[in-house]
Amino acid sequence: MRYKMIVLDVDGTLINDEKIITPKTKDALIAVQRQGVIVVLASGRPAPGLKRESDALELEKYHGLLLSYNGGKVIDVTTKKVIYQKSIPRETATRLLKHLETFPVTPIVDDGTYIYTTDEDGYQIRYESQNNNLKIKIVNNLADDINFCPIKILIAAPNEVLLSASKKIMAPFENELSFTLSAPFYLEATMKGVSKASSLRIICNILNIKPEEVMAFGDAQNDILMIEFAGLGVAMGNACEELKAIADEVTLSNNEDGIAHTLKKYYEI
User: Fold this and answer.
1) In whole angstroms, what is the distance from residue 51 CA to residue 86 CA?
2) By Cβ atoms counted within 10 A, which residue in 6, 102, 103, 266 is the most buried?
3) Which PANTHER family match (predicted)?
């Protein structure tokens, strides 16, 4: 089987624990792109937060794709064209943000340029700003002052808080929004049905690539549907047990060049 597309989760998968793409992994991914393989970065991050990795892998040169916001927005890096986007209606976003005011969590909302918050020292606000190349804009009240349709609303809190509150947070919106735990301290809300897998299906239809021609790598719960969708779903050695259980293969960890290790089994690089 010749895999025509390689889909990569970023945090915990493409980058190691020092937040870098190792030379061995970088060289392997550039080598397969030279053979005509399309590389897709699939992340919960906003698109600006993927620029460093996109540049390192030369995606602009090879028509790579950025699948950001857990599938809420897909961009062709070369043409800058938005291939797909699914936003949360403002009314729904307002209701969720009002609802979140009753929980000890930090909502993080961005428009691709700014993170909007009532407190720049809020939980994970500065980290998200720095990690995703987003500026911080202070508002009086998120529910009242967000005047756009966000693609994703990120809900941040320590793991023990999220575990105890997540069911109550999600319950009123289960018919409208999809929720995914992307990290122990992050619960992400997107439109119902939006996922890395749903966006991949749309991309593959556009590019005339079959699911069985897709190889995907991931490590977390928000990668499960993507790993199931791909013809070859690969869990990193550091992946959560749920992902390892459904993956076709388990490779080495993100600190051991797991992606490069697997690519060398399937490509002459």
Assistant:
1) 21
2) 6
3) HAD SUPERFAMILY HYDROLASE-LIKE, TYPE 3, PHOSPHOSERINE PHOSPHATASE
Contact 86, 72 (CB under 8 A): yes
Q: Cα–Cα distances in Å, from 66 out to 158, 203, 208? A: 28, 11, 18
Residues paired with 191 in a beta bridge: 177
Our count of domains for the chain comes to: 2
3-state secondary structure of 150: coil
| pLDDT tens column, 167-204 | 999 999 999 999 988 888 999 999 999 999 999 999 99
First to last CA, the chain: 16
Which tokens in the block code for residue 7?
A: 């889909």
How far apart CA 229 and CA 154 sit, in angstroms, is 24
Query: Rounded CA gap, 190 and 210, in Å?
Result: 25
DSSP secondary-structure letter at 95? Answer: H
CATH number, position 131: 3.30.1240.10
Structural domain range at position 76: 5-85+194-266
Active site residue 9: yes
Distance of CA 240 to the CA centre of its chain: 16
Please tell me whether residue 63 adopts helix, strand or coil conformation. coil
Tell me, what CATH number does 258's domain have? 3.40.50.1000
22-67 confidence digits (pLDDT tens): 999 999 999 999 999 999 999 999 999 999 999 999 999 999 999 9
Cα torsion at 224, 80, 128, 25 (round to 10°)? 60
Cα torsion angle, 57, 236, 204, 150, sign: negative
User: What are the structure tokens assigned to 59, written together?
Assistant: 């995606």
CA distance 199 to 195: 6
